[in-house]
């Protein structure tokens, strides 16, 4: 390892992987990152996990895209022979930027002008900056002319956000992770924090050491279980039964915080009525947790000075994901465990900027800061702000867009062209055979990325973009901290900053309808920078240097109204990290929200009763096992970055399927054997690994490996509110043998 005294320069940034948002310093020598140090950031206090410490050299990987590529005429978009990393199999030819941009934007424009605005859609990225997310959604709304814009939040916490917006009026966390320091009880549900939010997990372990009780509630018993006071290994898919049993106990045993419910909640009677039938004794056979254990946990939660709930995608990725989150909101409300230190609701955000990308409006039903596109006042404000007529109907979500790509020609909303920036739906979407077929069926697909991803493999034009260390920008972590990362390197070859590429597409497409000049936005909403209808905004002429990034940030700050109004670019340059809501330059930010009221219409939490809805596809005699998908410590999402990081790839070089010893024995398998996992939609051959934390009758597969893509098997059934697919539950066969 090269020490800091031997490097050419040190550049401060933010870890590009998970939503914990650890602040880092890149050590650069000879124009390469040679090591990474943890900084004393508010989320990490100098700590880093293996990804943050060693996952940096993907940026220097020889498979980086360095020139624009155009698909050769007549080459089929066939995924039958999936590409190996770095191999584009002669399907593409190199092109100049001018030629590639002219084709990329020209065909999108043709499709829009021929078939109308609904013919196009865009996926932005939670791996990019807030500024990129903001500009991308602005391009789709003003240039494409619809709200068909989404990103991977749809695949992780969309159902949590739906429940939170409905219940407490805000989709973000109420308390920051390291507030577990003040909690007596830490309720971790549907989350494997030591793998997925490792530095956050260290705060939980520290809390356990000083005496806090961790309750792990999860069908899989993961590492944090070693530190747990109680482990509730409930049967997969029975979240609502278990959580309603806890709420039932709180009410039945007189543990309700009556004053809190009376003064700050609505619809309590409906909740009380609904959970009457969910006694622990009735639910124990359903969820698999003894009634007395459920009662014990409910009592401990209700009587703790502070009890905090942290959850992951085990809660959200179900057809009843919104109901699961509604139950968590109800649990903290009836016990008064919200709006004070060491309590509250914390959906642990997955990717580094999934919070910020959502805040910036990279979602089909909301403008920046969760202002609904079908709200007349918000709609008028943004039409004025951007100076272009806007669609007032919510757009399609990720999975809906895939369906619309395969709609008949007669469908006026058929998606015919897409622009995908930094996302990899050909690996991350459910039911991949369907998703890949949909992407391949598009008349025009433009992909902007740093590697030839599985999605880029299906593109007509591939635009080489910048890796995170190659750009300056802000990201927002799971704790609502807006954090600034600075450019440490130049992009390789002819690769370009994403902000530049978005603008080039926007300029060539032009607005979907003529610009207009109407009344100015509401008084006070526009600050010194002025309306983006000036030379920078409507002409898509932001500067290519840091001042251009700052200009986009400041425009976004106006669009987000009060939420980040106290976080100026200059303040971020001084402080690196500021928590929102932050209303003025001297506001330190609010690490705990809902202290006095909730941002709902009546200022109260709305309690929403939930009943048991079974998974869309249950195991049966033909497909007897449950497939659970997820992540692992060393690899990140579809693996495009971490599998090209030397240390991380060496630690976990190949896909494995985890099963417990009992199931391995029953099938006559040993760890290391190859099995074929098969669902009704697809199959993979994969080595098995023993993991006794995986429940009987289930198999866990990470989705980072192209050669054993777990999502070939997953079910695209959606939660009706969050429109999130059921990644955490589908039925599979486990068959001995196969060729991995
Ligand atoms: Fe990066 Fe998350 Fe690890 Fe921190 S915990 S170093 S943000 S991957």
SSE arrangement:
Layout: E1 9-14, E2 23-29, E3 32-38, H1 50-54, E4 69-71, E5 92-94, H2 97-115, E6 120-123, H3 130-144, E7 149-150, H4 153-156, H5 158-167, E8 185-189, H6 193-196, H7 198-209, E9 213-217, E10 230-232, H8 239-252, H9 258-264, E11 265-266, H10 268-275, H11 280-287, H12 291-303, E12 307-311, H13 313-316, H14 321-334, E13 344-347, H15 354-359, E14 366-367, E15 371-372, H16 376-386, H17 398-405, E16 417-421, H18 425-428, H19 432-441, E17 444-449, E18 461-464, E19 473-476, E20 481-485, H20 498-509, H21 546-559, H22 569-575, E21 577-579, E22 605-606, E23 625-630, H23 646-651, E24 656-659, H24 661-666, E25 674-678, E26 683-690, E27 698-702, E28 715-718, E29 725-726, E30 730-736
Parallel strand pairs: 6-7, 6-16, 8-9, 8-12, 9-10, 11-22, 12-13, 16-17, 17-18, 23-27, 24-26
Antiparallel strand pairs: 1-2, 2-3, 4-5, 4-18, 14-15, 19-20, 20-21, 23-30, 25-26, 25-30, 28-29
Helix pairs in contact: 2-20, 3-20, 3-21, 5-14, 8-11, 8-12, 8-14, 11-12, 17-19
The structure holds iron/sulfur cluster (SF4).
Cofactor: [2Fe-2S] cluster
Domain 4Fe-4S Mo/W bis-MGD-type: 8-63
Keywords: 4Fe-4S, Iron, Iron-sulfur, Metal-binding, Oxidoreductase
Report on this model:
This protein is α/β, with parallel strands linked by helices and 740 residues long. 30% of the residues lie in helices and 18% in strands. It is built from 24 helices and 30 strands. The strands form eight sheets. The chain has a seven-stranded mixed beta sheet with strand order 5-4-18-17-16-6-7, sandwiched between helices. Strands 24-26-25-30-23-27 form a six-stranded mixed beta sheet. Helix 3 (130-144) links the parallel strand 6 (120-123) and strand 7 (149-150). Helix 8 (239-252) packs parallel to helix 14 and helix 17 (398-405) packs across helix 19 (432-441). The protein is globular and about 70 Å long. The two termini are 35 Å apart. Iron/sulfur cluster binds at residues 15, 17-18, 20-22, 44, 48-49, 51-52, 197-199. This is Formate dehydrogenase subunit alpha. Residues 8-63 form the 4Fe-4S Mo/W bis-MGD-type domain. Its cofactor is [2Fe-2S] cluster. Keywords: 4Fe-4S, Iron, Iron-sulfur, Metal-binding, Oxidoreductase.
